[in-house]
Amino acid sequence: MVSLDLLLNALAAGLLLGGFYAAVSLGISMAFGLLDIVNIAHPVFVILGSYAAYIMNARFGFDPILTGVLFTPVFYVLGVVLYRIYYASFERKGAESLRGLVFFFGVLFIVEVSLLLAFGVDYRMVEARYIGESIHIGPVGLAYRLLVPFVVGVMLTGALYWFLARTFYGRAVQAVAQDAFALRLMGANPFKVKSIAFGLAIATAALAGALLIMIGPVEPALNREYIGRVFAVAVLGGMGSISGTLVAALLLGVAESLTATFSGPSWSVAVSFAVLLLALAVRPAGLFGR
Amino acid sequence: MSAEVFLDVQSVTKRFGGFAALNGVSLSVRRGERFGLIGPNGSGKTTLINCVSGTLRADGGRIVFGDQDITTLPAHRRTRLGIARSFQIPKPFMSMTVVDNLLIPLEYAAGGHGAAAMDEAMSILRLMGLDAKARVRSGALTQIEMRKLELARAMAARPKLLVSDEAMAGLSSNEVDDILAILFRLNETGITVIMIEHIMRAVMRFSERIAVLDAGEKIAEGGPDQILADKRVEKAYLGE
Amino acid sequence: MSGRAFAVAAVVVIAGGLLVAGLGLNQYYYFAAYVVLQYVVLATAWNILGGYTGYVNFGTPAFFALGAYTAVVLIKWLKAPLLAQLVAGAVVAGLLGLAIGYLTLRLRGVFFSIATLALTVVLQTMFVNWEYTGGARGISLARPATAPFYGSYVQFVFAVMVILAVLAVATAWCIERSWIGRGFAAIRDNEEAAECMGVPTLRLKLLATTVSGMLMGLAGAPFPFYITFVEPASVFDLNYAVNSLAMPMIGGTTTWVGPVIGAVLLGSAQQIATVTISSELNLLLVGVILVAFVILAPEGIVGLVRRLSRRDPA
Asked: Can you tell me the ipTM of this complex?
């Protein structure tokens, strides 16, 4: 017999988790959905963000969110540099499909192994006063370690949505994806627009990484679990739609949380894969695709 | 000339998102005919050809080839039935030599193999004036040579219906005459030819009948003289 | 290389391998050579899909592990002989390739790649949770008391791997020379044009994923008897993914010889390096070399040699 409390708690935890998944997936939705750059290394940059939060927390006692915000510009620059290499080596030559993928796989691998060399396989975590506390609404307990990532994740989604919809460069990014002609009318340089957009996509990883290490301990290989998740969210969300990304992330969070509660946590990774395959097989245009 | 309908396009519709690239287009091409398809840029010519060759699936309507409904057949099956096309923007198999490019349709669509296929490939290349380049990687060809390769590769599928999508763009007037001569000769061997072309002189000289597309709809059909005299056609082109 | 020359070379390699297997050298050499040969199989398998057809598979560990675990199940359940393990491992992994291909290959190629990335994690989760094969702790397996040949089991599985490596390379060679190989190359160069020239692209892609998956499973099937202990962490190792892709990329992806060169060079280098430097540093080097080659020498060593000797007709 399934207890109602258990179900409600699982739903609440799933929604909170989903808000965090949105933060992790935004970078993929932008890079893959809007720019057509299959950056499979995105999750490893999230892990890099986690380690930044870990170091600043362990050395100087910084709050992880603060670190996340502080490191956003650093990651932005990292993203711009990465895009320049990618552009010069692959995109410009029209060789992005096979070699570009392999390139990002190599980057994933280098970052992961470097982290492994620097920090070993041990799980790392951060400390902050509110982590470990929770508030209760009726029978539902909301842990701050999930609630804060949810709130920040949703805010980040909102900020990106605003950027894409309301700013000149945001609209240019959308035009880069669909309408080269409109882009030319706007007088924007596609290379510059794409560097900015890819820089922003990687910048989100700094914050997402801080959120990740708040939710639970992190080790270098953890990024691989997130590859399935972020692409499931990006595809289900309709490739490049920011609001779609949020909805898909919330759905995946709830699905995983229910699975973890009722079948055991080790199965929750499989959920994202099932969702991804199902989305690809049945509705590749995503939930909100035309 | 027999009047038998060979390719029958019946009110075909194709949408991209909310935009109707083809809106109920019908036309019938007779066996052995030289058929021209013209229209301003973006009028839906290439979309129509994509629907006929199977690169795109029509959203509505029917396409009948010979006595077979091919509306939902995958492209490679249509090629085996005898529909071959060239691409407006050349799409050679870059890593292969020119002659290997022709072996693909010869082996996969025309059922050829071994030395005989090689001989046939070489004779097509000779016809197109590409035989000197047979062993060159196709990625190293000039734009004009790539256009010729497009046509040569389509011919290697031993088509019954050949669709030439702007095969002459960028060619000199002598080269246009050469290609026209080749297409005429192919047509004499019984191959039906649909020619999409911007070079009016070539279409008018080549085609027995011409259909005009504008904004996804057929606005005129008839012999070259009729088309030239048609007010709507004139407006479609001048209004561009 | 002509058909006869290739056949002679294959026979020489097998005969040489069987001879070396009988020498009774220090067992370490057989262990090390086994690993290099295993990479020859994996790199060749990867290249049939990745190099010939242009579809990137990141899930080598999944196929390899499935081959190994199929063997584990057969050993535990039926005490089946090695030959049966090889056949079953190949079939099961081939079916996985077919299934993943069927689900994703109608879409853009990247979706296949993404699915294979996630596949490894999911399959690993399944085997971590499956108690019959030892779960996360792994499972110890007893080899038969004596090997059918050579007395030593290590020498025997080494000899088996020599044959498998030749089999894999011969498969690649045959594909490359046939109309199927030309069809694969047409898909890689331009899928739309290939389809319009009569190439049944979906069917050929499924053939490629199936054959490639089979060979990867074949590489994994002798693993339980080679090491006598199988755990998820060792067979689902990301090493297999990065190496099976790095080796063809470094050697050259368009011919059968590329993956062989890459596997022998990179595989031996790693066997030597694990003794001298840490295995993490070792992996980092593989990653850096891979990225360097992808950016600077996209045609691999084969391409470099061709460019130097100007044998390339282009």
From this structure: 0.90
